UniProtKB/TrEMBL annotation, chain A:
2Fe-2S ferredoxin-type domain sequence ranges: 23-99
Gene3D superfamilies referenced in this protein's UniProt entry, alphabetically: 3.10.20.30, [2Fe-2S]-binding domain
Protein name: Xanthine dehydrogenase YagT iron-sulfur-binding subunit
Taxonomic superkingdom: Bacteria
Matches recorded under Pfam families: Fer2, Fer2_2
Organismal lineage: Bacteria, Pseudomonadati, Pseudomonadota, Alphaproteobacteria, Sphingomonadales
InterPro entries: 2Fe-2S-bd, 2Fe-2S-bd_dom_sf, 2Fe-2S_ferredoxin-like_sf, 2Fe-2S_ferredoxin-type, 2Fe2S_fd_BS, Aldehyde_Oxdr_Iron-Sulfur, Beta-grasp_dom_sf
PANTHER family linked: OXIDOREDUCTASE WITH IRON-SULFUR SUBUNIT, OXIDOREDUCTASE, IRON-SULPHUR BINDING SUBUNIT-RELATED-RELATED
From TrEMBL, chain B:
Organism of provenance: Novosphingobium fluoreni
InterPro entries hit by this protein: CO_DH_flav_C (IPR005107), CO_DH_flav_C_dom_sf (IPR036683), Diverse_Substr_Oxidored (IPR051312), FAD-bd_PCMH (IPR016166), FAD-bd_PCMH-like_sf (IPR036318), FAD-bd_PCMH_sub1 (IPR016167), FAD-bd_PCMH_sub2 (IPR016169), Mopterin_DH_FAD-bd (IPR002346)
Top enzyme category: oxidoreductase
Protein name: Xanthine dehydrogenase YagS FAD-binding subunit
FAD-binding PCMH-type domain sequence ranges: 1-221
EC number: 1.17.1.4
Length: 177, 338
């Protein structure tokens, strides 16, 4: 049984009357089960931003070169611009919106603020999702590791030293727990 | 991106059936194919999503080798404890490539089948014999800083972009393939091909054939090895030149066996067995390493902006042989070159 697509736009003002595609897609998004119909050529990034109004994930290059669209799929960081949404049937997707909320910041979000780890902020959601993926992977032990393993996220403001500081702080916190 | 039909088979036989027609493409991690589809370079009318096929395991082979399922991701392969302990050359090469995000999505089969990153191949407004046979080559006489210096043809000077495949070439891996005519095993040296008169063909797969696994032989060269990659920035960039060296020293300290594979210089990972043989029975040292480098690069042709690669490749060969002999493999985190 396939449910028609429902859009939970933050404003609640617009509800789609037509499914956006023909292929059923059932997946978990930020902890919530979602049942949609999508076109096979829709990327996860476009689905998140254009259909589901989750605009935290950013479209920088749309070619997997900048990392601004990074999300966690089954806990692993990936470029959502290169994932066809239809391939995520049965999977678990977490975006920046699922990591923390205003008033209930994720430790990485708090650390990025504390360490001034951004200027324009455009790459930040991808940086933070990537950093959470780095922590999940468990292969980073020091600053050099963090810098190498965060290399999939470009920051054209050049906040790299502060980003590394923020990630290292949370890595240290998690280690001491 | 053009519109296409979508199939999601759960068994290899089913996938081969779905992939049998013309203008079909197998989709795994999607990190290259989806990008090529966005650029209108790849225009499949049918996409066969193979992510549900049971090809996502790493298994022991009878006789001591390891079988890497085609759908195991690059990161899961590089961090697998068996790969790390027994095939550190492969783990190192994988971790030298792309970014963690890409390696978490990209699969082993997809790594083999990724297309060149030649700018002209990617730009559909420029001529490219690989994309449109007979159209001409924009790179010859054009901006060709990243292009090939060995094994080129007058039709194509593209390189194969993989790091992983350079290590697989040095390890003499084998590619397991399934097709409508049955299963077959392709030695790694015969998997990718040189452009010749048919640059549209990157490899020797027949239409509709599917890579199911990569087999690593027991001989893993876990002691004397290195993967040395030089590029324009220290991380997250394709190789200008890279080298995988797999060496074995005898009890007398002389070289008993050595493989040298180069990346970034040809349409396929480049090996030259006659050059490798110069090392047999020799004490490791600068002069024999230089002789090997000269032999490997003897037929190299620069096309202008990539002329520097010839001397760079010589130096990479010498340095990589030295690293392998000294058991000081290149770190993929600390990029200083010892």
């Amino acid at each position: 049984m396939n449910e028609a697509v429902t859009l939970d736009r933050a404003s609640g003002a617009r509800v789609a009357s037509e499914p956006i595609g023909s292929i059923p897609l059932a997946f978990t998004l930020n902890g919530e089960a979602r049942h949609l119909h999508v076109s096979p050529w829709t990327t996860l990034l476009d689905l998140l931003r254009d259909t589901l109004d989750l605009t935290g994930s950013k479209k920088g290059c749309d070619h997997g070169q900048c990392g601004a669209c990074t999300v966690l799929i089954d806990g692993k960081r990936m470029n959502s611009c290169l994932k066809l949404a239809v391939t995520l049937d049965g999977h678990d997707v977490t975006t920046i919106e699922g990591l923390g909320q205003p008033g209930d910041l994720h430790p990485l979000q708090a650390a990025f603020i504390e360490h001034d780890a951004f200027q324009c902020g455009y790459c930040t959601p991808g940086q933070i999702c990537s950093a959470q993926g780095l922590i999940n992977e468990g292969h980073a032990k020091n600053r050099e590791d963090v810098r190498e393993q965060m290399s999939g996220n470009l920051c054209r403001c050049g906040a790299y030293p502060n980003i590394a500081d923020a990630v290292l702080e949370v890595l240290g916190t998690e280690k001491s727990e | 991106m053009i519109r296409f039909d979508y199939a999601r088979p759960t068994a290899v036989a089913e996938a081969l059936q779905a992939g049998a027609g013309t203008h079909t493409a197998y989709l795994a991690g999607g990190t290259n194919l989806v990008d090529l589809m966005k650029e209108n370079v790849a225009r499949p009318l049918q996409v066969v999503d193979i992510n549900r096929l049971p090809l996502n395991r790493i298994e022991e082979l009878d006789g001591g080798g390891l079988r890497l399922g085609a759908l195991v991701t690059n990161n899961d392969t590089a961090y697998d404890s068996r790969v790390q302990e027994r095939y550190p050359l492969l783990a190192s090469a994988i971790l030298a490539g792309a970014s963690p995000q890409l390696r978490n999505a990209a699969t082993n089969g997809g790594n083999l089948n990724q297309r060149t990153r030649c700018y002209y191949f990617y730009d559909v407004d420029t001529p490219c014999n690989k994309r449109n046979p007979g159209e001409g080559c924009g790179a010859i006489g054009g901006v060709n800083r990243i292009h090939a210096i060995l094994g080129t043809s007058e039709q194509c000077i593209a390189t194969h972009p993989s790091d992983m495949c350079v290590a697989l070439a040095a390890l003499d891996a084998q590619v397991q393939v399934s097709g409508s005519a049955g299963d077959r095993t392709i030695p790694f040296a015969d998997y990718h091909r040189l452009p010749g008169d048919e640059p549209s063909r990157d490899n020797t797969l027949q239409p509709g054939e599917l890579v199911t696994a990569i087999d690593l032989p027991e001989d893993s060269f876990a002691t004397n090895y290195t993967y040395l990659k030089l590029r324009d920035r220290l991380s997250y960039a394709f190789a200008l030149v890279s080298a995988a060296v797999a060496m074995r020293l005898g009890d007398d300290g002389r070289i008993a066996e050595c493989r040298v594979a180069l990346g970034g210089v040809a349409h396929k990972p480049w090996r030259q067995p006659e050059a490798e043989r110069l090392l047999i029975g020799e004490q490791p040292g600068e002069s024999v390493f230089q002789a090997v480098a000269d032999a490997v690069l003897r037929g190299a042709i620069g096309r202008g902006k990539n002329d520097f690669k010839i001397e760079l490749a010589r130096r990479v060969v010498v340095r990589a042989l030295g690293q392998a002999a000294a058991r000081t493999p290149q770190s993929q985190t600390d990029k200083r070159i010892a």
